[in-house]
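Now read this:
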Amino acid sequence: MTDPSTVVIRNPRSGDGKRTQQAAKIARNRGYDVLDTSSGTETIALAAEAATRAERVVACGGDGTLNKTVQGVIKSEQLDAVSLGVIPAGTGNDFADNIGIRGIKHAFEVIESGEERHLDLGIANSQPFLNSCVGGLTAESSSRTSRDLKRRLGVLAYVLTTLSTMRSFEGLELRISVGPDADPVWTGSALMVLIGNGRRFPGERMRQANMEDGLVNVVIVEDVPAIDYFSKGAADTLLRRGGSHLTRIKSEHLTIQVDGLPVQFSLDGEMIDATKLTVDSHPGALRFLVGPSYDPSPPDGTQSKP
C-alpha cells in the first residue's frame, strides 16, 4: 500500500548514516515517496516539486536539511498548503527536539497522528531559519567544524571548535535596532549575537522558546566571564540570566548593522556573510506536525518586547 500524499526528502549523509538508513526503510515500508538528495541545491529543488503534489513534506536529516526543505516549499509558494514534518537523522537535531520529536520511530508516529501547529518562521536577509540565527564566535566555529569531527563527537564538536576559535576572535562592532528606521537600542562590541526562533539558549532554564508568539529571542554576549569552559554546564554559566555581559531582547523585527568587514551568520547551520542583517518573524507561517510534549505556551524567560 502506498501513501503518495507524504514525501520524505532524505539526506543519506546526515549524522552517522545509520539513522537515515533506518528512516528510509520505515518510510518505504509505509509507502511514502522517499527522495534522496546529494546537495543543498537539490534538496530545495526536490522539496519544491514535492510541495506541488503532496499533502505532507518531511525532511529527513539534520537542521540544515530541514532548512533547505523549507526553502524549497517556500520557492514553490506552497507554504500555506502543505504540512511539514521532520525525521531527526542529523548530528544535533535541535529543532526536532524542540517540537517534541524524540527519535526516528517517534517521528513516524508524529507524521501519522501528530497535532499540526502554526509555527513562526524567522527570515534573515530573505533566508529562512527555523531554529536559530547566530553571528560571531559560534558562527565561525560552525563553519570551521569538520564533518568528520561532527560524526565522531556530535554536538560536542562545536563546543571544542568554539574553545579553539575564541583565542583569536576579535569581536564584532554592532548597532542593533528593533524597528524599521529606528534608533539603535544597543551599540558596542559583541562576542556573539544569538537569535532564536525555535529555541532558547543555555541559561534560560529551558530549550524551547515560544514558537507561536511572532517574536524572535535575542541574546547579545558582550564579553566572556572568567569561567572553566571544560566544566559541566559551562554554556549555562556563560549565558546565565542576569549576567552583566549579556543583553536580552524580544522583538518581531531586528536590524543588525556591522561596522567593518562582513560577518558570518549561521542560519540553522547554513552560512551567510553580511554587513547588515535584517531579521523578521513571520507569525504562524509553518504548518508543522509536532509531538505531544511540544508546549505552545512555554513560560517566558526573557524581557518583554521593547
